[in-house]
Amino acid sequence: QKEVEQNSGPLSVPEGAIASLNCTYSDRGSQSFFWYRQYSGKSPELIMSIYSNGDKEDGRFTAQLNKASQYVSLLIRDSQPSDSATYLCAVENQGGKLIFGQGTELSVKP
Amino acid sequence: SQTIHQWPATLVQPVGSPLSLECTVEGTSNPNLYWYRQAAGRGLQLLFYSVGIGQISSEVPQNLSASRPQDRQFILSSKKLLLSDSGFYLCAWSTLGGGNTGELFFGEGSRLTVL
What we know:
By secondary structure, chain A is mostly beta strands. Chain A is built from no helices and 11 strands.
């Protein structure tokens, strides 16, 4: 089992829709969770961090964490073509190391 | 504000040639520094991290090495490149202590092609 798993996609949504990106992790002791956005050919950019169960909202982005289910998600409301990118889930394991998933490619169609 | 720069942005090297990638951070002191590699279509793999000058931890045994000669400078090197060293190399920094990583901030990346 991979430490951090994401569906590779591509996930295609129409402009204005909600995009839902999912991530599961194997280290039950993980306490810190992050979402990065990576445009093609560019470096990853931190967009959300979440540490407690529940939802955390920042503008059009909402991160959701369920530690019991070892599941973290990212919702993007009112998706825009500029949101088209690969989204990386990262989980800090008990050893303090940040483990990245392989990323989900999101395509927002005008 | 903090900034991170790495160079060169792109390089094409023959097999067996040496490599040197450099990264510097501005606007913060005593950062944790990291080198990651992203192979085509794959996730980010942690190669090295450093919590201070001269302190390097290696995560993956390979023909690469890292050095931290100054507080805000991190260098990735190889004496002889392999084809499998091709990839997108990313330097990153964080400030969280206690052996944790926390929020990572990445440089622009260096795309290496080994022929």
